[in-house]
Amino acid sequence: MPGEPAFHQQCQCHCGAAAFEVQRAPLMRFICHCTICQRFNGTPFADMVVLRSDGVVPPADGTVDFGTYRPPPAVQRGKCATCNKPAIEFMRLPLMPALTFVPAANFADAAALPAPRLHTFYDKRVADIDDGLPKHRGYLKSQLAFARAFYPAWWRTRGVE
Ligand SMILES: [Zn+2]
Ligand SMILES: [Zn+2]
Q1: Domain span at residue 98?
Q2: By the 8 A CB rule, do 14 and 37 touch?
Q3: Span from the CA of 79 to the centroid of ligand 2 (angstroms)
Q4: What is the pLDDT along the chain (161 residues), one digit of tens a residue?
Q5: How far is the CA of 81 from the centre of ligand 1 (A)?
Q6: How many structural domains compose the chain?
Q7: Could you tell me the distance, in angstroms and rounded to a whole number, from the CA of residue 85 to the centre of ligand 1?
Q8: Which of 71, 87, 116, 147 is the most exposed place for a label (fewest CB within 10 A)?
Q9: String of b and e for 7-18 (b: at least 16 CB within 10 Å)?
Q10: CA-to-CA distance for 23 and 14, rounded, in angstroms?
Q11: Distance 11 CA to ligand 2 centre (A)
Q12: What pTM did the predictor assign?
């Protein structure tokens, strides 16, 4: 794609039963400390890669169980039907591009991923993190910071699907 680095990786859950493919470069990577991410991942925070949904070949039907953890159901969070570990999440919001979120650990070559850009919902953190990245607290500030971080990358690659 013009203006877009080549990127192609296989992704999978912990056990490998939920497998899918990413064919376009990540827009952004961030660390989320919200309680939903904590609960969904069973970890103190989520290290998430943000992708254009049109660059993802989704997992086969039946390999992932999707659930909604807060209304409205803007984010469909998927766990592997076999190992029950996080696999993939889809987000659809009005006026926003369709986005897919994948835990960084689910990429075959995590070392090739971009570095995280920021922390969101840092007010919900389990532990302090001393990494020099911006820390955003609260719903509105976290959402705005997230949008500001992914949107320029999305804008650069719009209209080439
Ligand atoms: Zn699995
Ligand atoms: Zn979160």
Answers
A1: 9-156
A2: no
A3: 15
A4: 566 778 999 999 999 999 999 999 999 999 999 999 999 999 999 999 999 999 999 999 999 999 877 766 688 999 999 999 999 999 987 777 899 999 999 999 999 999 999 999 999 999 999 999 999 999 999 999 999 999 998 888 876 54
A5: 7
A6: 1
A7: 6
A8: 71
A9: bebebbbbeebb
A10: 20
A11: 20
A12: 0.93
CA-CA distance, 32 to 49, in Å (whole number)?
11
Q: Is residue 58 part of a domain?
A: yes
Sequence letter at residue 159: G
- Helix, strand or coil, per DSSP, at residue 97: coil
Question: In the chain, helix, strand, coil percent, each to 5?
Answer: 25, 30, 50
> Domain of 97: which CATH number?
3.90.1590.10
